[in-house]
Specification:
Elements lengths: L19 E4 L8 H8 L5 E3 L3 E2 H6 L1 H7 L9 E6 L3 H11 L5 E6 L4 H5 L10 H14 L6 E7 L4 H13 L5 E4 L12 H10 L4 E4 L5 H11 L3 E4 L1 H5 L12 H14 L3 H12 L5 H8 L4 H12 L2 H4 L2
Parallel strand pairs: 1-2, 1-9, 2-4, 3-4, 4-5, 5-6, 6-7, 7-8, 8-9
EC number: 1.3.1.-
Family: Belongs to the Dus family. Dus4 subfamily.
GO molecular function, one term: tRNA-dihydrouridine20a synthase activity
Length: 315
Amino acid sequence: MKTCNGNTSIMDMFEKGKVLKICAPMVRYSKLAFRSLVRKYDCDICFTPMIVASDFMRSVKARDSEFTTNEHDRPLIVQFAAHDAQTLADAACVVAPFSDGVDLNCGCPQRWAMSAGFGACLINKPELVKDMVRHVRNQVDNPNYTASIKIRIHKDLRQTVDLCQKAESAGVSWITVHGRTSEERHQPVHYDAIKTIKDSISVPVIANGDIKYLRDVESTYKLTGVDGVMAARGLLSNPAMFSGYEDTPLECIWDWVDISLEQGTPFTCFHHHLIYMLERVSSQPERKVFNSLSSTSAVIDYLQNTYGSLHDLGT
């Protein structure tokens, strides 16, 4: 579904019994080229990397470098870091003609974000979150444009439920829950907490955390009853994950080469994505060689010599 011109809403995609598959906001990684790739492999909705709203509004250069899109890049959610309601609403108004919604980052646990008043520290400021959601809803001149939040959980889950209910009362469109506290990194995801939140509000809930294979989408749905599942590292390792591939298929690797060449993806980004994609399908000596390559032509030669082209597969 392509949403544009304010005629249809991303909310129409939420159907009972269907679990939406979503590409997470990832700093440096969930940019246009990667979004174009995962959309070819059954990803329903994509998020931009987190953009600091105040920088975005202050600088044309920041707007041009941080937010690139094209007509095929839909449905698209732009994620902002903000701690001021009007700045968030202003940024939302700028991107609204080119996207389907904005998301407020209330989950980033990195020290720089928390000390600047962004990210996960906002889960302790429910009234501010409520105010920010309300400002976006009131000021974007498109009733179908969404305003969502992405959160982490509290140790005391009652605080998280309170935050979500306050956001719901302000008109939040949906809530993505990373099932860990801001202190937790690789500990197991608290699926019971996600289920409690899902049962406490009536807007859609998206689960985030440890989605590495398509089977994880189904198991997370069974455990929590959520409306969608968001993946980050799992998609970096295998952009075709949502299509059911266990590891990155060769077709997907060559799709990435084509998209990167077409869109002029900088070499470092092009190379880093391939390092992730090949991690599970290559040996350590192969990785050592591949990781040391320093030009696009060297990468393409290596891929053809090591894995072959799609032509060799008869596709």
